[in-house]
Amino acid sequence: MDPYSMKSVLDLPLPFQSTFSFRYFNSLQNECFPVCFHSDINMVVSAPTGSGKTVLFELCILRVLSRFISEGTKFVHVKGTLKTIYIAPSKALVQEKLRHWTQKFGSWGINCLELTGDNESYSIKNIQEADIILTTPEKFDAVTRHGIKDGGLSFFGDISLLLIDEVHLLNDPRGAALEAIVSRMKMLARNPLLKSSSLSHVRFVAVSATIPNIEDLAEWLEVPIQGVKRFGEEMRPVKLTTKVLGYTPAKNDFLFEKRLQNYIWGT
Questions:
Q1: Collapsing DSSP states into helix, strand and coil, what is residue 83?
Q2: What Å distances lie between residue 1 and 47, 88, 235, CA to CA?
Q3: pLDDT: is 144 or 68 the higher one?
Q4: Do 19 and 10 touch, CB atoms closer than 8 A?
Q5: Is residue 127 part of a domain?
Q6: Mean pLDDT taken over the chain
Q7: What is the DSSP string of 88-109?
Q8: 248: Cα within 13 Å, side-chain hemisphere
Q9: Looking at the domain assignment, is residue 255 inside a domain?
């Protein structure tokens, strides 16, 4: 790709230009940059592992934070008023992003909060003051059910962005919790009591390395055509090779499997 046509961190507002440790965005990020940072439309992205999907999430977060920029250069943050929810299938992934984003956004006064089974030391006040809530589907499902039951609609009203990592989890037995969360967000976004809130215009951004039915997912999340991005193996930073090896069959399946084990350990 022509370096003159590639987006760089200098294309971001001045307060955000130190967010990334690199100068230019890669090919995937370059293609998604206008949709991530210059629009509020829903997105679904399928791209190989290691291709830079986390940066897409961060561009969408910066899009939300850009509402706190005044006069083009001054970042004046109001705590907890525009929330980002990050949902990942495992606590390990949640905690990895928590460390990364606390380090990246913490100096701006952005408050990141972990909601998992490993962190029970939070309160309603913690949730209300959090800017980025990182959680698992099961935990956030439980927290949001409790909030609705107790009439705590103010918490939902502040949600501006919902990031879904490894969205192919929907095809897993655990996918029911994630489906319930998205359906609940859609339902609450249409609640007359939240008509003037951020949630009424909530943005969904879902990514995965493997989305076989990306069109169905896009329809469910109400993603317009310009928000559907599918990338193939050409985006993989380390190319994979495929080899097919054939072996002579044995007298029975047991001996054949034993022979294959020997071959596997020998390769």
A1: strand
A2: 18, 32, 13
A3: 68
A4: no
A5: yes
A6: 87
A7: -SSHHHHHHHHHHHHHHHGGGT
A8: 2
A9: no
32 or 264, greater pLDDT: 32
Q: In angstroms, rounded to a whole number, what is the distance separating the alpha carbons of residues 76 and 107?
A: 13
Domain that holds residue 119: 9-239
Quote the pTM value: 0.85
Phi-psi region of 157 (alpha: psi -120 to 50; beta: other; left: phi over 0): alpha
| Number of residues that this document lists for the chain | 267
pLDDT in tens, 3-53: 557 899 999 999 999 999 999 999 999 999 999 999 999 999 999 988 999
Tokens representing 28 are 């995937």
Domain-embedded: residue 250: no
As a whole number of angstroms, the distance between CA 55 and CA 243 comes to 32
β 69-70/74-75 pair status: antiparallel
Q: Tell me how far CA of residue 114 lies from CA of 127, 132, 139, 204, in angstroms.
A: 10, 9, 10, 20
Q: How many domains does the chain divide into?
A: 1
Q: Is 73 within the bounds of a domain?
A: yes
Tokens of 180: 């319930």
144-167 per-position pLDDT tens digit: 876 555 545 567 889 999 999 999
Question: CATH number for the domain including 107?
Answer: 3.40.50.300
Tokens of 49: 């592992």
- For residue 267, what pLDDT band results from cuts at 50, 70 and 90? very low
